[in-house]
Amino acid sequence: MAKKNVAAIVKIQIEAGKASPAPPVGTALGPHGIAIMDFVKAYNAATESQAGTVVPTEITIYEDRTFDFILKTPPTPVLIRQKAGIAKAASNPGTETAATISDADVEEIAKIKMPDLNANDLEAAKQQVRGTARSMGIATS
Fold first, then answer.
1. Is residue 71 a contact partner of residue 13, using CB atoms and an 8 Å limit?
2. CB atoms near residue 39 (< 10 Å)
């Protein structure tokens, strides 16, 4: 089988199991001429177990208007907010603390994010998660 030529790579973040042809999916994929409903059905089926979480997706669109997609891990701020049990981060992160998460929570988030981080080991990944939490006004203990 001949190798397919890639026409475009589209990256979007959609809530798991809730993709629809409406924006942002329709506006991102429509110009490339792929069947949007085929993507929506495949994405919702692949992410139904992660319902309620935002899942970034990298969609590779080929010249023959077929596509493949890769699911990434949820964004670090989303995981941190879930662990902290808050809806949004602090308004003034440098002076205000919105919540506190434990070192065990930081390690768990780092293990989840490890495939998508550019960290060499778990300790470096934990430092990246702590930095994200600090920038959100969430303390780590």
1. no
2. 22
